[in-house]
Specification:
Shape: rod-shaped
Number of strands: 9
Radius of gyration: 43 Å
Order of helices and strands: HHEEEEEEEHEE
CATH class of one domain: Alpha Beta
């Protein structure tokens, strides 16, 4: 009867474990390389925009500018003509108030200077002696507006009772017009109309 021997090789289990460890190390290394490549791609994508993206962005900005530009122009122009017209309105009211307060005739005199208009508040210190009131600086109307001063001798005079001394039913207003607003079919006129009793009307209108 044959009797065999079992030979135990001590290095076999260790070799098997070593192979497994090497495989795991290889997998980990490969995974790290893949993650590194992904990070590099992401970083490259974050560094800038492509030419197509830039062109699309520029096109969108251009379209938005075309859409909103008229509205922006209208808003700015409306604010400007409103400011100029209401400043005239305030000046007329101040002249009336000063006439009543001081018991002296006051007037607002408009004067064409070059291509524009200026105006100031004057007080009649003596008969037919008119002087600009203290603390009032002569104001101007922007030359870009069309101005129609329709007062007798371009002057509006208030009595100590607050009445209009030189009232005329056919010459009792001043009109400012913006050609830019007229181009866009927007209310382009601001009319300030003065009644005989000293009341003042402010009218927003669209020119013909």
């Amino acid at each position: 009867m044959f009797q065999g021997r079992v030979v135990i090789v001590p290095g076999a289990p260790i070799l098997s474990k070593a192979k497994k460890i090497m495989k795991n190390i290889s997998r980990i290394s490969q995974h790290k390389h893949e993650r590194a490549r992904t990070r590099d791609k992401s970083a490259s994508a974050r560094k800038g925009f492509t030419l197509v993206e830039i062109m699309v962005a520029v096109a969108i900005i251009g379209i938005m500018a075309l859409v909103f530009y008229p509205n922006i122009i209208n808003t700015l122009e409306s604010r400007k003509i409103e400011g100029s017209a209401r400043e005239i309105l305030t000046t007329l009211q101040r002249a009336k108030f000063q006439a009543v307060k001081t018991k002296l005739n006051h007037r607002v005199r408009f004067e064409a200077v070059g291509e524009g208009w200026v105006y100031s508040i004057e007080r009649e210190d003596n008969p037919n002696e008119w002087n600009i009131i203290h603390g009032f600086l002569r104001k101007s109307i922007p030359s870009e507006f069309q101005v129609d001063v329709d007062f007798p001798n371009d002057t509006l005079e208030f009595s100590p009772l607050g009445l209009v001394s030189n009232y005329s039913s056919t010459q009792n207003s001043i009109t400012l017009q913006s050609l830019k607003l007229a181009t866009y079919d927007k209310p382009d006129q601001r009319i300030i109309k003065v009644m005989a009793g000293g009341s003042i009307q402010y009218i927003v209108a669209e020119g013909e």
